[in-house]
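Quick one: structure for this chain?
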Amino acid sequence: LKDCFDLLRETTTPVIDRNRLAQGVVFNYLIGNNDAHGKNFSLLHRSSNPAAAFSSRVKGYQLELAPLYDLLSTRIYESLTRKMAMKIGSKYEVDYVEPRHWEQLCKDIGYSYRMLKETLFTQMDVILSAAQEEKERLKDDGFGTETVEAITRFLDQQCTRTFKRFNNR
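Got it. Here's what it folds into:
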């Protein structure tokens, strides 16, 4: 993750891109996407000037974090690894990530711990609300499946555990 955040210092809008990546890291953690490798984060090279090919020194060239993709809850599948592809602080296991590991990550990447914590809490609320709404919608449409139940159960457990860890400090 440090390498990813460091690379974003070179984009056209580093603050925006680093914030978006932090949001992505938090989202992947909360949904249990243990398959979020560095290769799942990409950069867009844009230029209105063909002569600008990959040179930020030429007017009209932009480098930015691409929209996030490959976002899924791998954690609900027993056959897949329980370890995250990239560590938070010193931890690869979601179950053992404590606030101090988020603090360590923030220190390592030069990011505001206060902002990251705010992102965690905001996303927990949004994820839990959206998951419940989607579960009900799917159920109403006749798609209430074991997978939907497993995902919503995991999201609830993950967000509850994370909330408690931050509030027991």
